[in-house]
Amino acid sequence: MKGINMKHFNSVILLPVLVVLLLAGCALNSFAPATSSKTGSPGVASPNAESAAGKAIIPDSKEWEPLGKTRTGDCYYKVTNCDNASNIVTVSTYKIVNDHYKKSMIEKFQKSHPELSKKYENLDHNVRVDEIDCKNKRYRMKEIVDYDDKGQVLQVSPHLSQEWQHIPILTGLDKLRQKLCAPEIKAPEPKKPAAAKKSFKKKK
Fold first, then answer.
1. Beta bridge partners of 75
2. What is the mean pLDDT of the chain?
3. Residue 85 placed within a domain
4. Would you say residue 197 lies in a domain?
């Protein structure tokens, strides 16, 4: 009787311990952290530590050159094509927009596209493609793409049929023209005829 009681006693003690261990193992597995990956703007930049903290996505310095500040944000640029025959340069501009520009875009879509207006609260930067006619100091916008603070596209605006327009002075486009276009060659000024030398005859 004592032997049977001891076996029963041991099984009663061990069973709850096994149940606790099994439950603990399930709990650990169910709360294992999941891994995730984020991709940035295709061909533009990848979100870095700063963008994760809610700051602007800075473009890759190996690909983009700093252009400077404008009224609407900080700009960077890169040349994508240069046609020497026509003297036309194709350039992309990466602009980290400021609050003033973001507000204007939100207000622009509030009435016509309220859902899009809501998305523009997360506007971070845009990439614009222009053709610059160096000879005639003109430009033609080809496309502009707006991105949010996670590098996702908000809107693509193609401008395939836009006419050539004169480049306004003291603008980002004017600064680009000065950087990318070869200096204008001035025609040499005509030489003035040399003054005739007076000859004096010696008196005999």
1. 68, 95
2. 76
3. yes
4. no
The residue range of the domain holding 60 is 49-180
65, 50 contact by CB (below 8 A): no
Please give the Cα distance from 78 to 45 (Å, whole number). 13
The string of pLDDT tens digits covering residues 166-180 is: 999 988 899 999 999
Residues in Cβ contact with 47 at an 8 Å cutoff, skipping those fewer than 6 apart: 38, 40, 57, 149, 150, 151
pLDDT of amino acid 102: 96
Indicate the residue type of 94.
Answer: Y
Let me know how many helices (H) and strands (E) the chain has, helices first.
5, 7
Residue 8 included in any domain: no
Q: What is the CATH number of the domain that holds 59?
A: 2.40.128
Predicted confidence (pLDDT) per residue in 126-168, tens digit: 999 999 999 999 999 999 999 999 999 999 999 877 899 999 9
β-strands 165-166, 153-158 pairing:
unpaired
State which amino acid sits at residue 158: P
Residue 37: both structure tokens together: 């990956």
- The number of domains in the chain is 1
- Is 39 a domain residue? no
Angstrom distances, CA of residue 124 to CA of 53, 69, 77, 170: 13, 15, 16, 24
